[in-house]
């Protein structure tokens, strides 16, 4: 396909020109604006302190707005959020710990997780065995 495009366009234009491709490299912002002779990659401007009061920070989700005309959402009291939200960051047992326990005593969620992790480990082991041959 590339050769047929080249024949159609002739020898005067290159493929870049024909398709409007621009092969330019862009650099990080502020690269040309930094001081000459400055060493390191640090910026010349120190970070500014936040202009928001502590009260605003504790009652709103700062930068939580995704709409042009909207405003940052307000934080609700803890009891208005669902119960599962508070357990998202709980530590869960790894596969080695789940193997040590009796499957009959495991709760349903841990049993599902054990089956998933065990299956994943067996797949990885089978793939590594096939890759060596």
Automatic annotation (TrEMBL):
Pfam families: Ribosomal_L37. It is found in: Mitochondrion. One of its GO terms (molecular function) is structural constituent of ribosome. InterPro entries: Ribosomal_mL54. Residues 31-50 are annotated as: Disordered. GO terms for cellular component: mitochondrial large ribosomal subunit. Keywords: Mitochondrion, Ribonucleoprotein, Ribosomal protein, Transit peptide. Belongs to the mitochondrion-specific ribosomal protein mL54 family. This is Large ribosomal subunit protein mL54. It comes from Acorus calamus (Sweet flag).
